[in-house]
Design brief:
Layout lengths: L9 H11 L8 E4 L7 E6 L5 E6 L12 H11 L9 E5 L9 E5 L9 H5 L3 H19 L15 H15 L4 H16 L7 E3 L8 E3 L5 E4 L6 E3 L2 H10 L24 H12 L6 H25 L7 H10 L6 H9 L4
Helix pairs in contact: 4-8, 5-6, 5-9, 6-9, 6-11, 7-9, 9-11
Amino acid sequence: MSSTLTGLDAARVEDWLVANLPGFAGPAEFRLVAGGRSNLTYRVTDAAGRGYALRRPPVGGVLSTAHDMGREWRFVSAMVGTGVPVATPRAHCADPAVTGAEFTVMDFVDGRVLAGVADAEALSPQARARAGEHLVEVLAALHALDPDERGIPGSRRGFVERQLARWHGQVRASGVEGAELALFDEVHAVLAAHVPPETRGIVHGDYRPGNLSFAPDGTVVAVFDWELSTTGDPMADVGYLAAWWQDPGEPPREGAEPGVTTVPGFPTRARMLEHYAGLTGRDVSGVGYWIAFHRWRSAAIAAGVRARYLSGAMADDGYLDRVRADQAAGRLLAAPAEEALRSAGLT
């Protein structure tokens, strides 16, 4: 049993799992799963060899509502039995006394997460094509769900209004200042002045191949990271995916690595959007606003991640070096959002 993992009192967590997770048998092994920039994720293996994923917030620098394990538990539970594949939820601990914060436990899903180009290259061209199609089909299935019918009533207040207020406050709480804060404020003002009419559905909030698990044939076997999920306009997810998507030959943003969708076999951004529109009947012509919105929102989230790594609140998985390099280069996190505003004709 590991006992020195960040944010994890292994002995107490094991006792809790034995008492609250039917069939769980100790001793347990805990291993940090690298790659998450928000919550801490551990693979837990019990004495019988069964694997689970345990997720909890960072140990410090937690931004209000941004690491809500209860929210993730509710949304994952609501997806069971739908056309949206998720890891089977097993237990939720709401008692922070066990290991310093509430946490959730789900089955560990074996599959390939497309976190980088090498992961995409490990799939065949046919599997990449299927991955590009099926992730859109899963997103369409999510957006076809009625939040009230799935037990997620949510807020009736506009999604963009809520998100702009929330993340603008989070940026300031993260200690951003000077020219960087001024740019965040400037982009925020333009976005707030051009909010499009909104519809209502379930929004994942971080839907991209790096938060999905794929089978060898490219089929999506699980959607992860529901901590930012909410109710709102489904175009929010579409804009986020389009903002993240990178066509072959399209240069990455400064400081970023080439995206997995640049690997031959994946559809282009335009084809991805066309496929979504065909499945859902939604008009995607205004996606430019949502791309700018999500680049700004992603920059706000990145500001919080940067603050947590610099404060030592996250486990050392090698990402801190990149944070320091970006800071030394003086990169303004909101610059891609400003560029997207210009491309959408909003400035």
